[in-house]
Amino acid sequence: MSEKTAEQERLAESRPDRLRDWRLWGPYLSERQWGTVREDYSPHGTAWEYFPHDHARSRAYRWGEDGLLGLCDRQGRLCFALALWNGRDPILKERLFGLTGPEGNHGEDVKECYFYLDSTPTHSYMKALYKYPQGEFPYARLLAEARRRTRDDPERERRELETFLERYGHRAVAEIDLGLPRWSEDPSHLRNAIAGARAVDAGPLRFSRFVEQITILLIGINGRYKTHSHVRIVGLDHRPG
Fold first, then answer.
1. DSSP alpha helix (H) spans, 70-168
2. Is the distance from CB of 122 to CB of 23 less than 8 angstroms?
3. Quick one: which of 124, 87, 97, 89 has its CA closest to 7?
């Protein structure tokens, strides 16, 4: 019988007693929480209109999170994802841009170039690629063009991709190739991220219960990964309401 591979050994450790819980962290973070029925509190069940992509940067989700090539624990309590800026966009690139069902001329449609390249079953190794334009991302133009076209017209990116490559070549986008070591084997990346946390802006006093939960979570991470984030609570507003 051939010897087990390293990944087979990790799989054996993951079950049934979770000697080492390899599946605790993985690419479980949703690509899109906006526009879903989970976040729909509209009076007539119009989830698309109630929470479009344009609202995601300024409204809090109630039942989940999303992110760009994101990772989280299996219960979604702690989420990590990329945040990019090309120096030209009016907003950070924190999630994939897409059109809702009524906005797209062919229905729901994501207007991004991203690829999941590799992953082991235990997520001990993961690799993904995201292509971020170095020029301003055409949020408004993509929306306006989709509204102008009918169902019989092609989607904008299909027709213009060849023209784009002919004009600008393959160097017109910044390619973000993301690959991180497993935190349980090399937690230095997580240590550096947690060590950078200095304060939690609590806001009004009525939010104190949620801040307490965040503090407990950070204390647990500090203990597990031997980090020191020196977290303090700031910004409490003691005024009524």
1. 139-148, 156-168
2. yes
3. 124
